[in-house]
Task: structure prediction
Amino acid sequence: MDRARHHIQKIERLSRERSELEHILLQNNRLIKGSVIQRFKTCGRPRCRCITENKPHGPYLYLSRSIQGKTRLKRIGPEEEPWVTRAASNYREFRKARERVVKINATIIELLNALEDLKSENYLEED
Result:
C-alpha cells in the first residue's frame, strides 16, 4: 500500500494545482486571440524623412492573428492599447492554464487507474 499512498499524494497535489489553474480560467477577464506587435511604416511620399532618411513612422501597434493560415493585422489605436494588450495577455495565460489542466487530468486518470490496480483484490482467481 506504500505505492498506493504515493499515488494518492500525487493526485492530491495535482488536484490542488488544477484548482489554482481553474481560478485563472474562471476569472471574468476579456480575452483576445492574437499578439500585440509594433511595426514601423513608410508613407510613400518621396520627400518624407521615412524615405529620404530611412526613418519609418511609428511605432504603430497592431493585433496580429492567424486566421485560416494567414496572418491578419488590425491597427490598435492609442486609446485601445491598454485593454487590447491586457486582453491578449489574458488569452495567452488562459490557453497556457487550460493546456496544463488537460495534462493534469490525463495524469490523474493514469494514477487512478494504477491505484485501482493496486487496491483491487483478485478474489476469484485460483492459486
Observations:
- Residues 2-119 form one domain.
- The longest strand covers residues 57-67.
- The chain is about 55% helix and 20% strand.
